[in-house]
Design brief:
The complex is a heterodimer of chains A (55) and B (272). Chain A has one helix and four strands; from the N terminus they run ββαββ. Chain A has 55 residues and is of the alpha+beta class. Chain A has one domain. Chain A has a two-stranded antiparallel sheet with strand order 1-2. Chain A has a two-stranded antiparallel ribbon with strand order 3-4. In chain A, β1 and β2 form a beta hairpin. With 272 residues, chain B is α/β, with parallel strands linked by helices. Chain B is 45% helix and 11% strand. Chain B contains eight helices and seven strands; from the N terminus they run αααββαβαββαββαα. Chain B is globular. In chain B, 36% of the residues are buried. Classes of the chains: A alpha+beta (55), B alpha/beta (272). The interface between A and B is medium-sized, with 19 and 24 residues.
């Protein structure tokens, strides 16, 4: 099983947590994953292609 | 004999040292040529905003924040972590925080691209994905209603009440299937929608004022989310940009609605 990595902290995302994934708002080519903890804390994520800094 | 020997040794040493010194001097001279005189840091090119858009933003009061600066926004603003994520422009003498309208404009374009992508993805799939907009604030109800009307049936506005379970309970009548994006006006007021989006693992787009927190928000638009004109302008610009990106209109002038159409018609009650 391939476990996805969080774009904020780099942690492996477990299947049972409320993580979210979406296309990069700026370029739309890269899929960004955010783990539950980073989402709750409002930690920033970066796109590896266009360097977009969110949220 | 011994003096002559010493002299000979001295000469040998001097010759050796001379060679060494010459080598060192040559190296130093070469290094001097390699090192540039002074390297000035490149100044960031700041694109000037269009004067018309600037006046539109300032007249609607989209940049006006509150006296409170909370959570991550304070951390980013005070510690200068990143310029692109700093939404605060300055603090006035009487304590009111002012939002940076450059960031607002940037984020409006990015958010429009994001919404357009979700709408286009929905068209290609068999079961069309939906976008849900929620607003508990009174001045936000009319703009979101108009926004959903302009963008079509896949954009559902929860303007009267966001019924709990709309995103999480499939046994309910009000349950909405295949939701791909949730848009909220205020994370503090629309906390039910935010909570359900978290449980249902749906990305969230939100307007952020200076007193709001970034928890569970995936894309933030820094804007005044209390003003009647400000909310109208935000949804007017978003709707126009999304329609242009989808391809329903070719230019901004073809958009058949005005700013006033998106503004709330509620007249505030003046207290004596």
């Amino acid at each position: 099983m391939i476990m996805e990595q969080c774009s904020c902290c780099g942690r492996k995302i477990t299947p049972y947590e409320n993580a979210v994934h979406f296309p990069c708002p700026n370029c739309g080519d890269v899929t960004i994953w955010r783990c539950e903890k980073c989402r709750e804390a409002g930690n920033s994520y970066t796109c590896i292609k266009c360097d977009f800094l969110g949220p | 004999m011994s003096e002559k020997k010493d002299d000979g040794l001295k000469e040998d040493f001097e010759e050796d040292f001379k060679e060494d010194f010459e080598e060192i001097e040559e190296e130093e001279v070469e290094e001097e040529f390699i090192i540039p005189v002074e390297e000035k840091p490149e100044e960031e090119e700041v694109e000037e905003m269009d004067e018309e858009i600037k006046q539109m933003f300032l007249s609607s009061g989209i940049h006006i924040g509150t006296k409170i600066l909370s959570g991550k926004l304070r951390n980013i603003h005070l510690n200068h972590f990143s310029a692109s994520n700093d939404f605060i422009y300055r603090q006035t003498n009487y304590g009111l925080y002012v939002l940076n309208i450059r960031r607002t404009e940037e984020r409006l374009h990015i958010a429009a691209k994001w919404i357009a992508k979700f709408i286009e993805e929905g068209k290609t799939h068999d079961e069309s994905s939906k976008i849900v907009i929620s607003s508990v604030r009174r001045y936000g109800k009319e703009p979101i209603r108009k926004f959903s009307e302009v963008l079509g049936k896949n954009v559902i506005a929860r303007d009267i009440r966001f019924v709990p379970g709309s995103l999480t309970n499939p046994n309910m009548e009000a349950y909405i299937r295949n939701v791909s994006l949730v848009i909220i006006v205020d994370p503090h007021a629309d906390k039910q929608a935010l909570k359900e989006a978290k449980i249902a693992r749906i990305p969230v787009l939100s307007l952020i004022d200076t007193d709001d927190d970034l928890a569970n928000v995936d894309l933030a638009i820094p804007a005044n989310n209390r003003g009647k004109k400000a909310l109208g302008l935000v949804f007017f610009l978003l709707a126009r940009e999304v329609l242009r990106l989808i391809g329903q209109i070719s230019s901004d002038e073809e958009f058949p609605y005005n700013r006033e159409d998106f503004e709330s018609k509620i007249v505030p009650i003046m207290r004596e």
